[in-house]
């Protein structure tokens, strides 16, 4: 493990936020953004807030909002206070647009869509950037009774810069900045204004988000300055790409957090993996959330896009499964079965599952694999044999198992060690190696070719269930 490096100390109490739009599920990129904000705040005794940016009323749905909340809760990213609706704050956003107007940082514009389109086409024809330069910027003789918008008065000369905690200083020419609409002609505020007002009113000190918002930061910085507010620390993190280096999309596999839950990932493993996507603490790969909270800082975030690696994710999940307590895994399995609308095991089977956990978790990389390995516990007679198990149960091996069953039936002690001795002695009398007995025995008792030690399996299942399953297998 590497030694901890000194990290930056904020001048004021840290407040971060995650601000998703409720237009779909919580995707993996959004989950990592939420995680980085959560880690940064929790590591500095700060505050982590949640804001639902639901101003797009046509695309925002209550179902999507609930999916985001459920995804964050499952991932273990708890937020402080209530989730805030951006739409509910529209009146405050309008108030701030008028403040900008009064301060001379914004102006009213009566230009029609046709006039704007024509001006842009003319700029293109003259080889200029297709930015609309409103003729109303320095006028105040418009008719207030007629539809109009309120625009931000962006600088026309010089440069606009953002000091970013990840990307460094990023600069744009003022000639590339247009006069952003703040308030539409119907009086509704635009997203860019709403974000600034909400972040200021919520006391956000650090805006940690995807680098696809980097250009927005330049415009939003102008709004902050126009209102006389302190600009927060911006930290624009690289996006997540697929294994092929292309922008992550549905073709790369499951994207919603609930899909990873259904695939059998532990939330602590997914937090671990997502933290390593674009951020590093030396060579550490496996770490706890407590360690991530203590280590995480903005300077260690990479500028380049991170590539998702599903094989690494699964491997890391297996490490977390082996590190988890047996009771934790049993509960995770029961929760997953419930999420998949499958019946929960009976108290007796749940107890057997917990007893078998030490052997099961050594072989599983996902909770689904853990459940599948425990098929022999949950299954009802007669067992369904998978293809490999079926091949092990030939006519000859079934006959051999029938003879072994006679030896086992006379055995009163049913512990793993005693059962292994019985099987070894039987193998010697049959002129076989122990594996030639143990393999079909495993298939008959578990329905699978792979399981924990077959003698541990027998102890877990108990004498009566084992003998009954062996009789089923012998009967074919």
TrEMBL record:
Keywords in alphabetical order: Aminoacyl-tRNA synthetase, ATP-binding, Cytoplasm, Ligase, Nucleotide-binding, Protein biosynthesis
One Pfam family recorded for the sequence: Anticodon_2
Chief subcellular location: cytoplasm
Superkingdom field: Bacteria
Aminoacyl-tRNA synthetase class I anticodon-binding domain span: 330-473
Protein residues bound to ATP: 250
GO biological process, one term: glutamyl-tRNA aminoacylation
Coiled-coil ranges from the UniProt annotation: none
Protein family membership: Belongs to the class-I aminoacyl-tRNA synthetase family. Glutamate--tRNA ligase type 1 subfamily.
Subunit and interaction comment: Monomer.
Protein name stated in the entry: Glutamate--tRNA ligase
Natural source organism: Albimonas pacifica
